[in-house]
Amino acid sequence: MTKYIHFKKFLFLAIFFIVHCLIAYNAYFLAKDTAMGDGSECKMLVKPAYKFKRVPQSDLAKECNAVNRISADFAQVYFPARVASSEAYNSKTPDPWHRPSRYAPFLHDIYRHTLCKLQYGYASLLNIGIQVLVFYLSFIIAFRKLHIRNYLFPAILIANVCLFLTPSGLSWLERGQFSLFVASAYIWLFLGIIMRNPFYLVLSAILAYLKWTSLPLFFIVLALWILRAKDLKESFENFRFALIVPATFALIYALDLQTSNLFLKGLIAQETTVSPQGLSLLFLVPRPLVKALPVFLVAIGCSRLIKNRNIFVAMMPYLAAVGILSLLYPSMAFDYSTPCLLCFIPLMAYWAEIIKRDHNWQGESPTGTPVWLDKIRRVLPFLALSFFCAFLLVASSFSYIIRQFGLHPLSAIFLYVGCAAVLLIFSTHLPCKVFTCQKD
Q: How high is the pLDDT of residue 373?
């Protein structure tokens, strides 16, 4: 038995080492192309899902040494912030493609005084580096705080493969997106709730404010946290605790009220009028129903809370399903937002570990239960965790699968919705009694 355990450890370390050699090779050439714009992408082992979008020539692009560089979405922040433009939120924006920014003035202000002091290529590379650093610090802290350290290295392996060896993860890097700030915000939101720590909620709100697509999941999670209360007194305490997040949002919004109003006006116009792009649910469902989705999910979540005896931790599979659906919520939704879901790896592992440790779950099966059904019952939590990790890997590579098998581009939407439905099934059929001895 000891030899078998040592062999498994050796095999995992070998796989970990080999995979990270491939990751280092791929990341090097993408980082080089990000900083220098020298076409190093042609040497990558795995390439992004979309064609490289490079900054065209202009006077401002030449001044910032940005011509032919990538990180096109980062450009929406960099160029307006570089010239301290008040026109970032209209068609006169200095963005190379004249796209009104959909990032909050708070992010523009931070970058104006930091990254925008650098030339474009190095600024965009540092933007990615900061996100990776913030995310992995949050990720590792989550495993330590939740006492599930034995899952850490397998989780890092899955996260790194999703980010650096799949088309969607590499598209996040190539476009200079801000998705890992969102993933970090989700981690601190759940840690704040589970550990009742208001400072974690403030940190989560600051990170979430950097990208508005984090807001639907924040709304659903906080609403369910308030509604989980067993009486009016607890409901008021939960509401007061949850109020930390919108209060932080309001404070940041008020720092630059005039520009924040322009940002909000443009965002509302986009979500109410712009034609759907990418993986938006608007391709399948009328706009009013899609925009009401958070309310529907709160209502469904309430029924799950009742079944789970108001135990918030028991909701993790449901909330992971909500996280998947939230990626499809915007009018312009793309698969390079999949890294936002990496935050659910420690949360699903925490949920599975609670069940594993509980004697009610590991004890005797009800009389008459078939042996095969009892075996399934015992592995079901880790089957749910494995299923979610497999979804992350498949979703991150699905653009390649679409091309290889000639699938319809919208089939990715059905993948996301279908996997969310499976997680709902896991949430429905795992007993809640195992959580009664646990604290949220």
A: 58
